[in-house]
Amino acid sequence: MITLMSRALLLLCLLSAPSMAVIETYEFSDAALEQRYQVLTAELRCPKCQNQNIADSNAPIAQDLRKRLYQQLQEGASDDEILEYMVARYGEFVLYRPRFSGATAILWLAPILLLLAGAVVVLMTLRSRQQPTAAAAQTLSAAESQRLQSLLDDSESES
Amino acid sequence: MAPRAKLFIPLVLFAVLALFLLRGLELDPKDLPSALIDQPLPQFELPSLGTQSLVSRDQVIGEVALFNIWATWCVSCRVEHPYLHQLAERGVPIYGINYKDDDSDALRWLEELGNPYRLNIVDAEGELGLDLGVYGAPETYLVDAGGVIRYRHVGVVGERVWQNILQPLYQELLAESAP
User: Fold this and answer.
1) The total number of structural domains that make up chain B
2) How distant is the Cα of B100 from the closest Cα of chain A, in angstroms?
3) Contact list, A60 vs chain B (CB under 8 Å)
4) Given this model, what pLDDT does residue A123 score?
5) Which of the given ranges, A8-12, A133-137, A145-149, has the highest pLDDT on average?
6) What is the domain extent for residue A126?
7) Contact A90 B35 (CB under 8 A)
8) Do both A86 and A32 map to the same domain?
9) Could you say which of A50, A64, A91 has the minimum Cβ distance to residue B35?
10) Which residues of chain B are under the pLDDT cut of 50?
C-alpha cells in the first residue's frame, strides 16, 4: 500500500515538473546572437525576484525583459546599448556586474583594500615576531640576577 | 601598540560589523530607487481604456498628477482602490496605467469598484511599464506640471503613505507650478 502511494506521488511529481518550467524560446538568425542572448540574460538581474538573473526567473517582468532583449538583439543593438537601455530604466541594480562609478567605487575597491589591510597586518605580525625580544628577555641584567639570588636565599633561609 | 590594547581589536571589529548589520535590518532590499526620478515621463501612444482613441504623453501632462500602475490580477490594487477614490474626491488628478491586463476585465473592475481615474492608459504589453522601470503593481508615480517624474512609490498607497510622503511632495510641486 505504502509503496503504491509513494509511486503515485512520484508519478505526480514527474507530471507536475514540466508545467513549472515554462520559459519561452526564441529563434535566432545567427548563433553569435544566441550566444550574446545567453550571456546577457545571465548578466541582467531580475528587478522583482532579486536573487535571480532574468534567464532563471519566471516573473512576468523577467519575461518582458527577455522579450525586449531579443528584439534589441535582432535589431542589431550592441551589448553596451542594451545595457545602457536597461540601466536607464531599472538603474545600476539591474546589472550583476555594476559599472565602475562614484556610487559603485566602494563595491569594486573594498576587496582590494581589505586584501591590502590583511597583508599589512600579516607583515606587522611577522616583523614583531622576528625581533629578538624573546632572546633578550632570557638574559638577566645585573640587578635582576642580584634580586633573583636574594629571593633564592630568602626561600632557603625560610625552609 | 600595548598588548592590552590589542585585545580590544576583536571587540572593535565586532562593534563595526554589528553597526552595519543593525543598519541592514532597517533597509528594505525590495525598496529600489527608481532610475527615472527627475527624468521626463517617457513618450507613449497607447489606447485609452473603454474608448477607441489613442492617448499620448502630451495629453496627460501639464499639471501635478499621480500615475497609478494597476491591474485586475493585482490583489494589492484592490486594497488600494478605495483610497484612490478618496484622493480623487479631494481633487488629486490620477491617471491609471492598466498594466498587462485584459481590457474587458479592467472595464468590469471599474464598473464594480468605481473609477477614480481621469483616464486609463492601456499598457497591455507592458511597454510603457518597461520604459518606466515598473517591476510590479501597484506602483504610483508623482509627476510634476512639466511632465517630470518626481517620486515613485512601490506598493499600496494608503493614508499613511499619502500623509507622510506623497502629500508633502505633492503640495510642494503644486506651489512650484503656481505662478
Assistant:
1) 1
2) 9
3) 100, 126
4) 94
5) A145-149
6) 100-132
7) yes
8) yes
9) A91
10) none
Q: Do A61 and B32 make contact, defined as CB atoms within 8 angstroms? A: no
| Closest C-alpha to B152, from B163, A61, B137 | B137
Tens digits of residue pLDDT in A83-128: 999 999 998 889 998 888 887 888 899 999 999 999 999 999 999 8
Q: Which three cell numbers stand for residue B10?
A: 576583536
Structural domain contains residue A43: yes
Verify that A30 and A87 share a domain, yes or no. yes
CB-CB contact of B149 with B143 (8 Å): yes
Q: In chain B, pLDDT over 90 holds for what percent of residues?
A: 79
Instruction: Report in angstroms the alpha-carbon separations of A137 from A151, B1, B24, B140.
Output: 19, 19, 49, 73
Residues of A near B (Cβ–Cβ under 8 Å) read 47-48, 50, 60-61, 64-65, 68, 87-91, 93
Closest-CA residue to A79 (of A108, A31, A41, A28): A41
- The string of pLDDT tens digits covering residues B125-157 is 989 999 999 988 899 999 999 999 999 999 999
